[in-house]
Amino acid sequence: MVSAYFIFCGCIDQASVGVVEQWGRFFRLASPGLHFFNPFAGECLAGVLSTRVSSLDVRVETKTKDNVFVQLVCSIQYRIVKENADDAFYELQNPQEQIQAYVFDVVRAHVPRMTLDDLFEQKGEVAKAVLEELEKVMGEYGYNIEQILMVDIIPDASVRRAMNEINAAQRLQLASVYKGEAEKVLLVKKAEAEAEAKYLGGVGVAKQRQAITDGLKENILNFSHSVSGTTSREVMDLIMVTQYFDTIKELGNSSKNTTVFIPHGPGHVRDITDQIRNGMMEASSSNLIDQ
């Protein structure tokens, strides 16, 4: 911009460069400051260009390899090369449209060869391709491309919804896997606990039966030695009858509302005793045969 401009002089702002013509032809470049012109020699200030970095946002709509329409927002940062300001002034009438056209061309040549996922992962490659093309072309017109940023990638709204649903489904699937693994661990631990409990219960029952057997054996020996003339069978019958009556007593004192029908009488007591004795004898015989 020109702060002040008269026929004979002009003031050019800092970070700007003036283009001076003589009789309609380019004569020289004017640096920032106050300059005097000789109108009688045909000198005049044709224009002023800013050498500051400018930014241009370009929105490009294109299609990816997997047929997804996306919009890419590119931010192009450029500036005029001070030494070649005359080329920028005379060669291009609208540099923004020229830059935008090249961005369209490069982006639409690269993006259709990439899938949507690849585009998100390799957006820097697209920006690099645009930068190389613009530097080669715009450098001839006195412009320097400072940097290109791929600001945003915007897929179609329906595609975004589908991507969110896929992501949610994947997370639900992963959560289901973790939940199944947790339930599996709980079931395994529960089964192991039940097996351990049954094992310990079996050990307890075996020890209990062993203790009962040892007690019966000791009682029979003590009774045989204390009461002369008694045999082991008689002592065994007496113990069986005593155990039988103790069982009847326990059933009668039980607080549960359960009715148990048991045949009872002197004959039945003798039958029960004979059955228990026969069972013990058969067990002893089988142990001898196995040995």
Can you describe what's shown?
α2 packs across α4 and α5 packs across α6. This protein is 56% helix and 23% strand. β1 and β2 form a beta hairpin. The N terminus is likely disordered. The longest helix has 70 residues. The protein is built from seven helices and nine strands, in the order ββββββββααααβααα. The protein is α+β, with helices and mostly antiparallel strands and 291 residues long. The protein has a three-stranded antiparallel β-sheet, with no helix packed on it. The protein has a three-stranded antiparallel β-sheet with strand order 4-3-6, covered by helices on one side.
Shape: rod-shaped
Question: Care to count the β-strands?
Answer: 9
The DSSP helix count reads: 7
Written as H for each helix and E for each strand, in order along the chain, the element string is EEEEEEEEHHHHEHHH
Q: Largest sheet, order of strands side by side?
A: 1-2-5
Largest sheet: 3 strands, antiparallel
Any low-confidence stretches, pLDDT <50, length ≥5?
1-6
Mean pLDDT, to the nearest integer, reads: 79
Percentage of residues in helical conformation? 55-70%
What class do helices, strands and sheet pairing give? alpha+beta
Taking the alpha carbons of the first and last residues, their distance comes to 119 Å
Radius of gyration: 53 Å
Percent strand equals 15-25%
